Amino acid sequence: MSQQQESPTGDAHTTIAELRDLVQQFVDEREWSVYHSPKNLAMSIAIEAAELMEHFQWIDAEAASAVADDPQKRAAAGEELADVVGYCLAMAGALKLDLAETVRAKMLRNHAKYPARAYRGKPSYERPAELNGDES
Q1: What are the angstrom distances between the C-alpha of 85 and each of 65, 88, 129?
Q2: Angle at CA 31, nearest 5°, toward 25 and 34?
Q3: How far is it, in rounded angstroms, from Cα 45 to Cα 79?
Q4: Is the full-model pTM beyond 0.90?
Q5: 115: alpha, beta or left? (left if phi > 0; alpha if psi -120 to 50)
Q6: Could you give the CA distance from residue 136 to residue 133 in angstroms, rounded to a whole number?
Q7: Which residues contact 14 (CB under 8 A, 6 or more apart)?
Q8: How far apart are CA 19 and CA 24, in angstroms?
Q9: CB 42 within 8 A of CB 91
Q10: Neighbours of 93 (CB within 10 A)
Q11: CB 23 within 8 A of CB 33
Q12: Among the listed residues 99, 75, 102, 74, the one whose alpha carbon sits nearest the alpha carbon of residue 87
């Protein structure tokens, strides 16, 4: 959705709980809860993530960014992303996790683990010397 026109069902107006309910209702109507064990959901998340990655395989960063400007490619990638998010919401339900609290807690740990002053402009795998106690 463009920035000029916000959908009444878009991100700004939809709660995580509403999305969880939407996914759960879909599952319940088909009696698929029996298949939604944490193991199966974890596998489904990985499978759908791989399908999302296929849209970006073998293209460079510039072409990958351009997917957002191509309505067909963006929609196709969005379909796979929706599958990933749907399975993540189902996993949160299966594990009885409050997703908002879980994400907030993880971000607090990430803030401590990757302080902005040390990691600004650096990938997370490049541990700054100042955090190693190594000044060389």
Answers
A1: 20, 5, 36
A2: 110
A3: 13
A4: no
A5: beta
A6: 9
A7: none
A8: 9
A9: yes
A10: 18
A11: no
A12: 99
Rounded to whole angstroms, how far apart are CA atoms 64 and 91? 28
3-state secondary structure 30-68: HCCHHHCCHHHHHHHHHHHHHHHHHCCCCCCHHHHHHHH
Number of residues that make up the chain: 136
Tens of pLDDT, residue by residue over 74-111, are: 999 999 999 999 999 999 999 999 999 999 999 999 99
Structure tokens belonging to residue 17: 């709980």
What separation in angstroms does the CA of 130 have from each of 79, 96, 114, 117?
Answer: 42, 39, 12, 10
Give long-range contacts, CB 8 A cutoff, 24+ apart: 127-132: none
Cβ neighbour number for residue 96 with a 10 Å cutoff: 6
- Cα four-point dihedral sign 35, 50, 80, 3: positive
Residue 53 is encoded by which pair of tokens? 């990655």
